[in-house]
Design a protein that fits this description.
Distance between the termini: 63 Å
Oligomer: single chain
Structural class: alpha+beta
Helix content: 55-70%
Shape: globular
Order of helices and strands: EHEHEEHHHHHHH
Amino acid sequence: MALKVYVHRISEPSRAVLIFCKINGIDFEEIQVDVLKGQHFSPEYRAILSPMRQIPAIVDGHLKLFESHAILIHLSSSFPGVASHWYPVDPSKRAKIHSILDWHHSYLRRGAAGLVSNSILLPLNGIPSNPNIVIQAEEILLRSLSKLENVWLKDERFLGGSTQPSIADLSLACQVMQLELLSEEDYHRILSPYKKVKKWIEDVRSTTKPYFDEIHEYLFESQNGIRELMATQSGKKKVRAKI
C-alpha cells in the first residue's frame, strides 16, 4: 500500500512533507484535508487519524503518525533511496538537526505562524486581530530571524554548518515562506535585513527544484487573493474615514 499523506498546502509543515516525498521519490497518495473549512476538526478525522486534530498526518501501513518533524524523521529512516544528508546516520549530526527542529517549534514557528495567523488569517475569517499579540509575535519572529542569520547559518550554506540540506532546512524554509502571505510592504520590512536567510531560502529552493516551487504554487495563489482582498478592505476603511 502506498503511503497516505493528509495535508493542506496552505500549511507550512504539510508543504515540507510533500516536498520531501517528491524529492526522494517516495510513492504516496496526497489526501487533502481542508483546514480552511475545519475538516481537521471533524470527529472522523480525529477518531481515525489525529486526536490532536493536526495536519500533516500520515498512514504508513499500520503506523498512524502526526507532527511534521516526527513524520520527516520516520520517512528518512524507513524509505530506501532517501539521500543520507537529509537525516545523517552520524549521531552528532542527528543531534544537531534535532536541536534545530526543537528550536523551530519554540521560536521561529511561534513568531512566524503567530504573526501570519493573527494579522492576516484570523481577520480574513471575521475574527478581530489583537494588536498586542501581533506585536509580540513579530518580536519573536525578528529575534528568530536574527538567530537564523547569525547562529544557524553562520558557517555554511545550510543550517548547523552543513553543506547539504537536511530535514531541518526543509522544515524551517517552508516556515519562512509563509511570510509571503503578509503584505508586500511588511514582507520586505521584516525579511530584507537578513541577507543570509534570503540566500538560504534560495539555496533550499534550488536543491529541491522543481518540487519546492510546485508545492508552493498554492501559497502564491493565496498570496495574490489575500493581498487583493486586504487592499479592497483598506480602501473601504479610507472611504469610511472620509465620510
